[in-house]
Design a protein that fits this description.
CATH architecture of the largest domain in chain B: 2-Layer Sandwich
Radius of gyration of chain A: 16 Å
Structural class of chain B: alpha+beta
Radius of gyration of chain B: 27 Å
Structural class of chain A: alpha+beta
Strand order of the largest sheet of chain B: 1-6-8-7-16
Shape of chain A: globular
Bound molecules: iron/sulfur cluster
Number of helices of chain A: 4
Oligomer: heterodimer
Number of strands of chain A: 9
Largest interface: A-B, 38 and 49 residues
Distance between the termini of chain B: 52 Å
Number of strands of chain B: 25
Order of helices and strands of chain A: EHEEEEHEEHEEH
Distance between the termini of chain A: 27 Å
Number of helices of chain B: 23
Chain lengths: 189, 745
């Protein structure tokens, strides 16, 4: 089954002092019309430990200052309307994620710095991409091709999540070399 | 076979429930293509637990302007409700009892379809937010595969039946009410006598009269376990409720035997369905009917109804199953011994652990902040349940939005505490002032006036920071917050309650909370608090500090908060807080003009039309709508050249419409097809109710002739005619229904 629901997360090297500050930032994004797609509302889960933090809920995708998938970071969660091959779908998610991550990092209110030497991907559909060897084999080539493209052909070190088989299929991909959100955006044009 | 949850789950979904969900999915498709009425679909959706959410009308104030939310799908899922707009799904968890596997599946659903958060409601449900309706059928299938239904979680129906989370292990209970709760909710789920209400009905079971756990007296039907002359039964209350006009339920029966529990409840449903208000929603709960008639008259009506109620074996076949302990502990009883206690254990033990009736066992309450926990925590909880209490027993949700683990041997408390710390579930604040209860409010509720969760979160954070310095009496107070007067946060039964209101100040709308003081959960919520005055939302934390400080300082020895407030009276309270009610003009200080955790300038413009009341759709409308769906399926079968299937579906469609019409005259009509035809003829055709002024009984005869002359097997042309006749019969049913007068009992 094609990839329709994908999560892309960049971890923070310098997390914001208060993740609740992202509430103001996301409301501003809606007011300024400064994010692609149809943003709907802001959800506040700052009170939940290791929770989804602050989420800009959108129709096609959510953006979050998130604490669920590992340490705090920026999370892009695609929910619907992807098209094309799996590689194109992953690239589309990357492109949207990089644009929003750059915008979030630039916001002086947060002082967020992201670690681009690794990226976390979670396949948010247990039926389409089960957390099995076969599930990973079915998407692995497309995913690696897309991530490599996003990182300008850099070498990748893919680490599939081990442990809880109840979790979704997830990988953390380490990337050789120095990268910035601007360079990633350039690679994704 | 294509990959789908339906195929993947196969037989794990009980066949009848699977079929119901297939029908619901088809209804979704029909609505998306505008082939069924949006009002009927809205009630269909609500009765399956799929609720609307704030901004689903396609408009939202972003703080500067009202924005149109332009969704790609041009369809509605109810009057003024956009198809693509995210909604909430309410998952019924009767008496809050949940298994380890169910915790895991709900975790998966929250991750894949929503925002990875599970929210415990004040009625022991789980709510997931930001769900797209297209995902709802699969979500329901995955729940059904682990024995959970969302059916009748919303809408004008019997909602989740709640019960003490300590049932079976509590020291003060008369007996374990779990089996009775199970029997009643299963009996009333989808029961034909519980489908015609003007509003919802909430039922609660309590094990004893003195404690607070199930708050029987604030429910439409409240039951308190009682043993009389060695026989089990219930104190039976009817007609309570919170909402804008709170009512204490009057006592209907001092003692009702177990044998009569189901039939009397059924009688009440019939009377409520028949006589309850249908037009004026704000007067449609059963509390208004009971108040109007008086409890004596209401009791007489029940007794009359009982005499003619057709017998049902299910009334008593559950009795006796609760004579012995329904649960068995996974681990052996053992007291907490002299093990070294880790940091934080003692304070957690004091607030979160209670001894069970059974020696050597404890219950442990997990304080979920604002009722929320993550998918990962849900899975951790499943693991903890399997380690300490077993797969199917021992985890219950509470009306205070927490989770209780039962059957924990005292000697295992330290291990459990350490596991809870790892899962970040060991907050030492259960049943304290920090453990604030809140409804969704403006976060997601269409009716919210103020940010109840924003306020509750703020209070929680501030109180948690200083909780160990607080006076012991203050630490034990309860705060509950609702986003509006509808009381979903149960503010009437808190020591300190709040509900959202708005006030015009200096030309602006300003979020406020009305303060309610002196309510009581104990004794089954036997006294409601009284409104004091409204305070700007941003001033509430300061008001709490002053109020609790005043109580700590001025209370007489061991004086409870209710008594203290009564003794002090209103004037000194007003003096204490008066300055907080005044705010500077916007230009000087804009802070009070926004709500908690929301930087937008406050507006009431986002308040929508609530779906709590459901759509008033009569059973007859459902029946005719079902007939339309079946006729549509028949068309599809014709297209596929399946004559037999088309003919059968056309016949089913006619029976559905005919039965729905007969139901308006006889609510006891069954699915017996011969009886439907006979009653359709005697009650509707012969008195010329189902009658066309030009062609008389012609349309009725399509139905009666079809019954007499089935379509020959494989005859596509005859099947085609039958489908046409069914369509005309359904049209005539609509006409008949619109012109008919429903028989009053
Ligand atoms: S009390 Fe009001 S705001 Fe809160 S959930 Fe109920 S209807 Fe919504």
């Amino acid at each position: 089954m094609a990839i329709d629901k994908l999560i892309v997360k960049f971890f923070a090297t310098e997390p914001p002092e208060r993740i609740a500050d992202a509430i103001d930032v996301f409301h501003r994004w809606i007011q300024d019309d400064s994010i692609d797609g149809l943003p709907l509302d802001v959800a506040d889960y700052a009170h939940v430990p290791d929770g989804p933090g602050i989420i800009l809920i959108g129709h096609e995708a959510d953006h979050a200052l998130d604490e669920t998938e590992g340490p705090v970071g920026y999370m892009y969660r695609r929910k619907r309307l992807l098209a094309g091959s799996d590689e194109e779908r992953v690239l589309a998610c990357f492109k949207a994620a990089v644009a929003a991550a750059a915008k979030l990092s630039e916001d002086p209110k947060l002082g967020l710095k992201l670690d681009l030497s690794r990226v976390r991907l979670v396949f948010n559909d247990r039926l389409a991409q089960p957390n099995t060897d076969a599930g990973w084999d079915a998407v692995s080539a497309a995913v690696q091709a897309a991530v490599s493209k996003a990182y300008g052909g850099a070498d990748l070190m893919v680490e599939r999540d081990a442990g809880d088989p109840r979790a979704r299929l997830g990988v953390t991909i380490g990337v050789a070399g120095d990268h910035s959100l601007a360079s990633l955006a350039g690679n994704l044009v | 076979m294509s990959a789908s949850w339906k195929n993947a789950l196969g037989d794990a979904i009980p066949a009848d429930i699977g079929e119901e969900i297939d029908v619901y999915e088809r209804q979704c498709e029909l609505r998306r293509d505008d082939n069924i009425d949006e009002k009927v679909f809205a009630e269909v959706r609500l009765r399956r637990g799929a609720y609307g959410q704030r901004y689903d009308n396609g408009h939202r104030n972003d703080g500067k302007q009202i924005r149109d939310l332009v969704f790609p799908t041009k369809a509605t899922k109810g009057p003024g409700v956009e198809w693509d707009a995210p909604g909430m799904i309410r998952i019924k968890i009767p008496y809050g009892g949940v298994t380890a596997r169910q915790l895991e599946v709900m975790a998966d659903l929250a991750e894949e379809y929503c925002d990875a958060i599970l929210h415990v409601t004040t009625r022991q449900d789980i709510q997931l937010h930001f769900l797209h309706i297209d995902d709802s059928p699969d979500l329901m299938r995955r729940l059904a595969a682990v024995g959970i239904t969302t059916r009748e979680a919303c809408g004008n129906a019997v909602r989740n039946v709640t019960g003490c989370p300590f049932a079976g292990v509590c020291k003060t209970e008369a007996f374990d009410t779990t089996v009775a709760t199970e029997a009643l909710w299963k009996f009333l789920l989808g029961h034909k006598d519980a489908q015609d209400f003007g509003r919802k009905m909430k039922i609660s079971f309590s094990g004893c009269a003195s404690e607070a756990c199930a708050m029987a007296r604030m429910h439409d039907i409240g039951l308190v376990a009682k043993v009389q002359d060695g026989k089990r039964g219930f104190e039976y209350y009817v007609g309570g409720g919170l909402g804008a006009v709170p009512h204490q339920a009057p006592l209907l029966y001092e003692f009702l035997s177990e044998e009569e529990l189901l039939p009397i409840s059924q009688c009440i449903c019939r009377i409520f369905g028949r006589m309850g208000e249908k037009k004026n929603r704000s007067k449609a709960r059963i509390k208004f009917l009971v108040a109007k008639l008086g409890i004596e008259e209401f009791r007489k009506l029940i007794e009359e109804e009982r005499k003619t109620l057709p017998h049902d074996d299910r009334w008593t076949d559950w009795i006796g199953k609760n004579e012995k302990e329904p649960e068995e502990a996974l681990l052996a009883a053992a007291e907490l011994n002299g093990q070294t206690r880790p940091d934080g254990f003692d304070i957690w033990f004091k607030t979160n652990v209670k001894p069970q009736r059974q020696p050597g066992f404890c219950t442990v309450e997990l304080a979920m902040p604002l009722g929320d926990y993550t998918s990962a925590q849900s899975r951790a909880l499943a693991d903890i349940a399997r380690t300490y209490v077993g797969e199917t027993m021992g985890v219950r949700l509470t009306v205070e939005q927490n989770v209780v683990l039962r059957w924990i041997p005292g000697a295992k408390l330290i291990d459990l505490f350490q596991d809870l710390v790892k899962a970040k579930l060991a907050s030492p604040s259960a049943q304290t002032i920090v453990d604030v209860t809140a409804c969704p409010g403006t976060d997601t509720c269409k009716l919210g006036i103020a940010a109840s969760r924003g306020l509750a979160g703020e209070l929680r954070e501030r109180l948690a920071a200083k909780q160990f310095e607080l006076d012991e009496a203050v630490r034990g107070l309860k705060i509950k917050v609702s986003g509006c007067f509808n009381s979903c946060g149960q503010h009437h039964v808190a020591d300190i309650g709040f509900y959202g209101v708005t006030r015009k100040r200096h030309g602006f709308s300003v979020p406020h909370f009305q303060m309610i003081l002196g309510g009581q959960m104990d004794n089954n919520a036997h006294s409601y608090g009284l409104p004091q005055f409204a305070i700007p939302a941003k001033r509430i934390p300061e008001a709490i500090d002053r109020l609790t400080g005043w109580y700590a300082k001025e209370r007489e020895q061991s004086e409870g908060f209710q008594d203290f407030i009564k003794r002090m009276g209103k004037p000194p309270l007003k003096d204490l807080l008066k300055d907080l009610t005044e705010i500077a003009p916007y230009e000087e200080d804009p802070t009070p003009y926004t709500d908690w955790h929301d930087p937008r300038e406050y507006t009431t413009g986002d308040i929508g039309i609530g779906e709590c009341a459901g759509e008033l759709v009569e059973t007859v409308d459902f029946g005719i709508s079902e007939a339309e769906r079946l006729a549509f399926e028949a068309q599809i079968a014709l297209d596929a050249k399946d004559a037999d299937k088309a003919a059968k579906l056309a016949m089913d469609a006619m029976f559905s419409a005919a039965k729905a019409l007969v139901y308006t005259q006889n609510i006891d009509i069954t699915n017996d097809r011969a009886a439907i035809v006979a009653e359709f003829t005697s009650r509707l055709v012969e008195p010329q109710i189902f009658w066309d002024q030009y062609v008389g009984a012609k349309y009725a005869d399509y139905f009666r002739d079809a019954v007499a002359e089935p379509v020959p097997a494989g005859d596509l042309e005859a099947a085609h005619r039958r489908v046409e006749e069914a369509t005309l019969f359904i049209e005539a049913s609509h006409t008949c229904k619109n012109g008919m007068k429903v028989v009053e009992a």
